[in-house]
Amino acid sequence: MMATKLLTIRMKLHVYRKKLLMIDRKPLMIDRKVLTLHLNLLMIDRKPLMIDRKVLMIDHKLLVIDRKPLMIDHQLLALRL
Q1: Burial class (CB in 10 A: 0-12, 13-18, 19+), 37
Q2: Of 21, 22, 52, 79, which one's alpha carbon is 20 to 30 angstroms from that of 40?
Q3: Phi, psi (rounded to 5 degrees) for 59
Q4: Which superkingdom does the taxonomy of this entry point to (predicted)?
Q5: Helix, strand or coil for residue 11?
Q6: In angstroms, what CA-CA distances link 11 with 31, 33, 45?
Q7: 54: exposed, middle or buried (C-beta count within 10 Å: 0-12, 13-18, 19+)?
C-alpha cells in the first residue's frame, strides 16, 4: 500500500492513491460501494456518508466534504477550493 500523495482532511479522513480511503487507520474502498466501519460511517451506494457528523455527498466520482468538492481521478485526488 503506497502512501504517496497523502491528503489529510479534518485530521480524520485520509485519501490515498488507487481510490483507497483511510478513516481512523481503517481502510475503506470506494470501488466496492462499501461498507460500515464505525457508527459514524454509513453506506456509500448513492447514500449520504457521515463521518463525525460531517456529510459527504457522493455523485459518481465526486465527494463533497464541508462544501468542498473532492474529485476522484484515476489515481490522484485533488481537493478543490
Answers
A1: middle
A2: 79
A3: -125, 95
A4: Bacteria
A5: coil
A6: 23, 23, 24
A7: middle
Partners of 72 in beta bridges: 77
Quote the cell numbers at residue 38: 464505525
Residue 27's pLDDT band (cuts 50, 70, 90): low
Spatial contact of 52 and 39, defined as CB atoms under 8 Å apart: no
The fraction of the chain above a pLDDT of 70, given in percent, is 0
The predicted model scores a pTM of 0.23
